[in-house]
Amino acid sequence: MLSRIGPAKRVAVLSVAAVFMAGCTHAEKEVSIAPLVPAAGRLDPGLGPETRALSSGPGYKGSPSWSPGGARIAFTVDGYVVDRPTDSEEPRRWTTRDFTAEDTEWISEDTLMILGAASPTGTEESPSSLYRTRAEGDSLELERIEKEVSAIGTGRGGLILARGRGASESRLALTRGNGDVRRLYSESIKGRVASLSVSPDGDEAVLTVRPPGDLQTSRLHMFDLRKGRVREITRLDGNREILGTPQWTGQYLYFVAGVKNTPLDRDGSEPLYEIFRVPEEGGAPEPAPGVGEDFVATSIRVSPDGERLAIIGRLSPQAPTNLYVLDPLAEDLTAVTTNEDMEIKTGPDDLAWSPGGQSVVVVARGTPSTEPEVHAAPAVRLLEDFYNLYEIPVGGPEDAPR
Q1: Are 123 and 113 in contact (CB under 8 A)?
Q2: N or C: which terminal CB in the chain sees fewer CB atoms within 10 Å?
Q3: Closest by CA position to 161, among listed 182, 140, 135, 133
């Protein structure tokens, strides 16, 4: 059974599913594939016996992010940012409730850089800003560092941000830990940078770019952070887009892509989102070896050592959503969970590796009923209908089967 947080008082509650769902809706870009109907009658949610909950209670949670030392984990609740120690229940709020966060990056144990806005945003006409905030008592003060920022990513040299209003042109900048711009790159990128990821050595950044006038097409650009030069390394033609942030693994970049704004294929099935890879030097993207041709993916994240990929997805369109780990070198896919009763959240940023690479955090909930129900159960069971963070052990590379 999963580890639970809070007392187990026995209560009788009349609950309507709509009440639960009120705290679980969100206007931002989200679920790429809908959850399957849970298997009836199962008690074990299938996240594994060593799994432990890192949050509890109502609220639409997401975007987990570990502190550099691994002692705390930050996440969003209905758009605002909180964090808490991984070994206690005491949360700490970083922003006010009217703030809408899109991304967070730790730059020290007590400082966060937050991409978002003080009101709902997420459109190209209403771009986000980059803020810095520190854990200083009960202060929720945010310092705006830069306006019109579309993506951020951390590297050895500091935080890289993409600036630009609308879809016509973007530029990159390198900031110091205090948020001051250390370098503004003069070469522009044609289009809007939707996401970026800095290479392990800090010398390059891979960018997901949506060109102007052709927002249905995603392209990958490589930006040389030493020389300040950009080049296109691959593109997805047609009505296809790249979801989330490309991941660096060895000589390849891995990313998830699929058909955009197409709820159903012609045969009535869900559109497929696949994992692709492309060499760092560029070329045509190819399906990632080792996952199987029917695999449906939504979220990927590379381990801290760069040797494994955590993946949220399904072995086939009819299979349940689970957490998997892919060894790209061995082309070996391992199922970490055997979940059939929990709805694992499938947002591109809703999973994160621990700094030591021994566990992965996912966001999940018990699937709420669509009919009114009377519950005679421990109070903690009623809270399972809300999204919460769960830490799932995955072991190290030495634990993988050979």
Answers
A1: no
A2: C
A3: 182
CA 316 centroid distance within chain: 21
CA angle 100–310–198, rounded 5-degree value: 65
Q: How confident is the prediction for the chain on average, in pLDDT?
A: 80
Among 26, 37, 8, 18, residue whose Cα is nearest residue 102:
26
Cβ-based neighbours of 115, under 8 Å, separated by 6 or more: 101, 102, 103, 104, 128, 129, 130, 131, 149, 151, 152
pTM: 0.82
Give 399's strand partners.
Answer: none
Q: Give the separation between CA 201 and CA 214, rounded to whole angstroms.
A: 32
Closest listed residue to residue 116, CA positions, set 288, 284, 349: 349
CB 359 within 8 A of CB 392: yes
* 9-46: pLDDT as tens digits: 333 333 333 333 333 433 344 444 444 444 433 334 56
For residues 168 and 171, give the distance between their C-alpha atoms in angstroms, rounded to a whole number.
11
Other beta carbons within 10 Å of 299: 25
Mean pLDDT for 84-109 is 87
**DSSP 8-state symbol, 164:** -
| Burial per residue of 355-377, b for 16 or more beta-carbon CB atoms within 10 angstroms, e otherwise | eebbbbbbbbbbbbeeeeeeeee
Is there a contact between 79 and 119 (Cβ–Cβ < 8 Å)? Answer: no
At residue 94, the 3 state secondary structure works out as coil
Q: What pLDDT does 396 receive? A: 73
Q: Is 88:77 a contact under the CB 8 Å cutoff? A: no
Q: Say if residues 153 and 139 touch (Cβ distance below 8 Å).
A: no
Residue of 29, 106, 35, 40 whose CA lies nearest to 75: 106
Query: Which domains are delineated in the chain?
Result: 96-238 (2.130.10.120)
Mean pLDDT (whole number) for 88-102: 85
Residue 348 CB-half CA count within 13 A: 21
- d(Cα 362, Cα 326) in Å, to the nearest integer? 16
Give the single-character DSSP code of 320. Answer: P
| pLDDT tens, position by position, 117-166 | 876 554 554 579 999 988 776 667 888 989 999 999 998 888 999 998 66
